[in-house]
Specification:
Helix content is 40%, strand content 14%. The chain is an alpha/beta fold and 412 residues long. A 7-stranded parallel beta sheet has the order 3-2-1-4-5-6-7, with helices on both faces. It has a 6-stranded parallel beta sheet with strand order 10-9-8-11-12-13, with helices on both faces. Strand 8, helix 7 and strand 9 form a beta-alpha-beta unit. The chain starts with 25 loop residues before the first strand and ends in a 7-residue tail after the last helix.
């Protein structure tokens, strides 16, 4: 039986100091993902931008978005610029990132105001006259062979890798990702800063857990006790370990269900293993439920589950465990990549390929109400130590420092 480990964070994340000065910056934002508020980068932008304006209303925020997308309303204090680019989607994407953003920024900078480009994902322009701040959440397409894709994808990643080296500063979501960026991209350490993510305000404990469980039973046919997983079904998410561990404990807990929410986003068997076949091979067809959970029900499943599990081998941050803890769920995660620094001492941590260890952890939590209660308490405190105010404060500090350091070219 593997040792179930947890580590202590040294201290809650301190809020960085904000020094308010009479200094206004034009911040031009690549808004490609603004129209996708349910995906990771879209969530990041939707949480971050209101806080940027709230903390520093003296700046001018301009979001550039591609035409033809259904764009949600912009937050207070953010101006929108729409760009129409024809041609095939992938070519239009590159033109938007590499040409449209720098050209628009150059025109805006003609007023002589300090101007900086903010790209919230791994796609900075290779050539821009204004300084660029890039957020790199992870290096999955560069580090994991199964995710490198076609020749076109590899060529694109080579382009943005070169562009990242030219960024004035890089933001990332964890110290793990920062170390990876420093080692793999060879960017100087003083140009890479961690700005943690946080769970959204909708993720909070249920006022009535039994009512939440009744809703889950009615909508999804899943009765307590149940183990929950939500996320991708690709290879790095490591569902095979979770399913094999569940098979080992199911005989001891025959009334427990494993609910899996998520979809395979492709058909490449190297990238998307056939988990339905594995479920059949393990004789778990009656014990595992595949469910489709709309965004609005996301908190509900966390609130109602007995255990939340996240066996991923690689995450740049790993929001689902943090969201689950914010909702009061006891959590088990892989002891890998960024996940230990996200969950701290508030979750059980098991090596990602240790099936026996995962089975032991699941069995222990299903059998020990006192431990589940303790993890709930610690999880709520851990989740509360992350906030988008903190994320925005660090982001603003970086944007302002970069803008101040850049020479201002005045145009006549």
């Amino acid at each position: 039986m593997a040792i179930i480990r947890a580590i202590n964070r040294v201290a809650p994340i301190p809020l960085p100091l904000r020094i308010v000065e009479e200094f206004a910056v034009q911040i031009v934002i690549n808004g490609s993902f603004w129209s996708q508020p349910t995906v990771g980068i879209g969530q990041y932008l939707h949480h971050l931008l209101p806080w940027l304006h709230r903390l520093a209303p003296q700046h001018r925020y301009l979001m550039v978005v591609p035409a033809g997308t259904k764009t949600p309303a912009l937050p207070v204090g953010v101006e929108g610029i729409t760009v129409k680019i024809g041609g095939p989607r992938q070519i239009a994407k590159v033109i938007f990132e590499q040409i449209a953003i720098p050209v628009i920024t150059q025109r805006l900078a003609r007023n002589g105001e300090p101007t900086v480009i903010f790209v919230p994902y791994f796609a900075p322009p290779l050539r821009a006259r204004q300084p660029v701040v890039t957020t790199i959440g992870d290096l999955i397409p560069l580090l994991l062979p199964a995710y490198r894709g076609s020749w076109a994808v590899r060529t694109y990643m080579a382009l943005v890798r070169r562009a990242a080296l030219r960024s004035a500063h890089v933001l990332t979501f964890s110290t793990f990702s920062r170390s990876t960026i420093l080692n793999y991209l060879a960017i100087p350490s003083d140009r890479v800063t961690v700005s943690y993510l946080a769970a959204g305000d909708q993720y909070r404990p249920a006022a009535d857990v039994h009512a939440a469980q009744a809703l889950v039973a009615a909508r999804y046919g899943v009765q307590p006790p149940f183990i929950y997983y939500v996320g991708g079904l690709d290879e790095r998410k490591n569902l095979g370990t979770l399913l094999r561990a569940f098979a080992l404990v199911h005989g001891r807990h025959p009334h427990c269900t494993l609910a899996i929410a998520g979809r395979a986003l492709g058909r490449d068997p190297r990238l998307f293993p056939d988990i339905d076949q594995l479920i059949r091979d393990l004789d778990l067809t009656k014990a595992v439920r595949r469910i489709d959970v709309p965004v609005d029900d996301g908190p509900l499943l966390y609130q109602a589950c007995t255990i939340f599990t996240y066996p991923s081998r690689y995450e740049g941050f790993g929001l689902p465990p943090l969201e689950a803890m914010a909702c009061g769920a006891p959590v088990i995660v892989s002891d890998a990549s960024s996940l230990p620094e996200v969950v701290g001492a508030a979750a059980l941590r098991i090596a990602p390929d240790d099936v026996a260890g995962w089975a032991a952890a699941i069995n222990r939590l299903l059998s020990d109400e006192a431990l589940r209660s303790d993890l709930r308490t610690r999880g709520l405190a851990q989740a509360a130590s992350f906030s988008y105010r903190h994320t925005a404060t660090i982001t603003l500090n970086v944007l302002e420092q970069v803008a101040k350091a850049a020479p201002v070219v005045r145009h006549r």
